Amino acid sequence: MSFFIDHPRARWTLPLAALGVIGATALTVNQTANADSGLPPRTAAQLLADVRSANVSSLSGTVVQTSDLGLPEIPGLSMSGRPGSASSSMTSLISGTHTWRVWLDGPTRQRLALIGSNGESDVIHNGSDVWLWSSADKSAVHHTLSTDQVRAGSAGKGLPSGLAGGLPSGVPSTLPSGAPRTPDEAAAAALALMGQDTTVTTSGAASVAGRSAYELILTPKDKATLVGSVRIAIDSQVHVPLRVQVYSTKRTNPAFEVGFTAVDFAKPDARQFSFTPPAGTTVTQSDHLLAGKGGTSANAPTPSAPTTGQGAPKVVGSGWSTVVVAPFAVPTAPKGSGGSAADSTAQLNGILKALPTTSGAWGSGHVLEGSLFSVVLTNDGRVALGAVPTSQLFSALAAK
Amino acid sequence: MSAAEPVVTEASERSPVAGPAPLRRRLSTRLLRSELRLIAGRRRNQMGLLVLAAVPVLIAVAVRISSPREGRGPDFLSSITSNGLFVPLAALSVELGLFLPLAIAMLAGDSVAGEANLGTLRYLLTVPVGRTRLLVTKYASLVIGAVWGVAVVVVAGAVAGIALFGTGPMPTLSGSEISFGAAVWRVVLVSLYIAAGLAALGAVGLFISTLTEQPLAATVALMIFTILSWIADSVPQISWLHPWLLVDQWMAFGDLLRDPPFWDNVAQGLRVDLGYAVVFGLLAWARFAGKDITS
């Protein structure tokens, strides 16, 4: 150590070296995704067959979803300044990272836990019981499935559909309803989009959640779409999709990504599926899960929900550049409902005002252009939506 | 320091961890004990501890005398009535923003800059104790101070909470209930996690403290560092920076109250804490070991 006494300035190299080691470690951890794990090559078709035949009935894991949809920051919406504060579901849909934990044990027992900052929302399905738990307002909704529904639930692989929308409106139910909840579902949705419009290739092995995986790359042949490519990482042993990344043509990082950060295919502890509301919880008995969904999610700002009697949505184009044109009305707060519905309506109107306006041969309206999709809300009560630049939406609207 | 202070060789001072075991046993804790006596004896530190302890008591009493009402307060506040152990948790989440970092900033300002300002640093360096060892002792006392501050909040909160709301099974964020004994264990884990974050902040403070001879400047600088970190952490446009911020995962202590505990964010937080402690500890060493002590 006399070296440092003779060369006092050399001491400063030690903190720099430590910084370098930390930086290098962080880089290596991120780079392991490209590590070659020496898997035997498999074609895209083989991988697709693997996925279809995959039979995983039990798993537990952590799923992280990040989205960078490139939408404008909307003032008045982001209330997430302080950690632990409520972030509205709309804001969280637009950007950010969400984490949830899943436990699956066969068709009759599933649990999904949305991790909020110092809060949690759970959906627990155990046999004929479905519980929705929200730690933010200490409330639980209990629903008893009929035997038919239990059987219907068994047919599906994941959670019974309709549960996502039925989450209590309380924060942190940050998971946008309709978004894929497991990489499995996301892959199924992506595969459904494929056909003659898509080039399917495979790339070198990836590493997801510490497991080696094959990667399936779907590239749209259609150059009009904003989707650059979709990459699906498929576990090399159990053939379950572990991660789905959607790349935009506009940026290099994934615009949307959902994947496991930890996964274990062992049977989860039965304790995970038992739920007893803790003392002091407001418990609501719900007879109809779907009716309950309609009741609670009416509060959620979902502009695309078409009001009956205004005509059906129209589809323009095909494949990746499909544009949906639907009638649209700004929802008004239902009479006699709680303050949250009025709040979200006001919030939605606030969002509308913040959006840039434009006009053309198709009329005039508000435009929202993201990295993966665009939305046009016209002043004459139509909404056009698609994974295309706004110019395509304008022509779809003009076509009437 | 008296002449009885054991003299250790230069090599073992520079790398006490690598030193052979018999030599390490000869390392006296006298320097550390005298440092801790100094910290504990300062009137301002005692007042600071009182303030830290007053917050959970204030929270507990306020919740007790007011009727339960709707609305969001700080995290865990609404759960207090069901279990007294939520009082320390609510207090920690409130104090983590300002009071606890301020306590560390005060200690860090005093540790080197304060002694330099008083002129006692050069006398401290005349005793046969290497500068590295002196700095390690200073940092150890900061770490102990961090644990101390958190413990005061937790103990005061637990005493007030249990006295006013009693014990009982604790509801976790996941909606299950854990026994009181398990709940105590979770609160201890939370305290250790928060103390680790504050200890890392102490390393930053120690480095700043070696840069100046004004203790107030060091204290203010560390508070600016902390508050800038919080601000940067709340700006979504620089989200790429967030994983590198010391305070980013501080609030993740709530993850320890899930069932089962969710370790990902806590582990990330501890990694960041360790990184800051190592880098700023070495920076402080590089600065202090070669510093001219002029006053």
From TrEMBL, chain A:
Q: Keywords on this record? A: Signal
Q: Where is this region: Disordered?
A: 149-183, 291-313
What sections of the sequence does the record tag as coiled-coil? none
InterPro entries, per the entry: LolA/LolB/LppX (IPR029046), Sporulation_related (IPR052944)
Q: Where is the composition biased (Polar residues)?
A: 296-310
Q: Where is the composition biased (Low complexity)?
A: 152-162
Give a yes or no for keyword Transit peptide in this entry.
Answer: no
- Which Gene3D superfamilies does this entry report, sorted A to Z? Lipoprotein localisation LolA/LolB/LppX
User: Superkingdom of this entry's organism?
Assistant: Bacteria
Signal sequence extent: 1-35
Protein name, UniProt field: Outer membrane lipoprotein-sorting protein
Q: Name its species.
A: Humibacillus xanthopallidus
UniProtKB/TrEMBL annotation, chain B:
What organism is this sequence from?
Humibacillus xanthopallidus
List the GO molecular function terms. Answer: ABC-type transporter activity
Q: What domain of life does the UniProt record list for this protein's source? A: Bacteria
Membrane-spanning ranges: 47-65, 85-108, 139-165, 185-208, 215-232, 274-290
GO CC list: plasma membrane
One Pfam annotation reads ABC2_membrane_2
Q: Where is this region: Disordered?
A: 1-20
Know the name of this protein? ABC-2 type transport system permease protein
Q: Which UniProt keywords apply?
A: Membrane, Transmembrane, Transmembrane helix
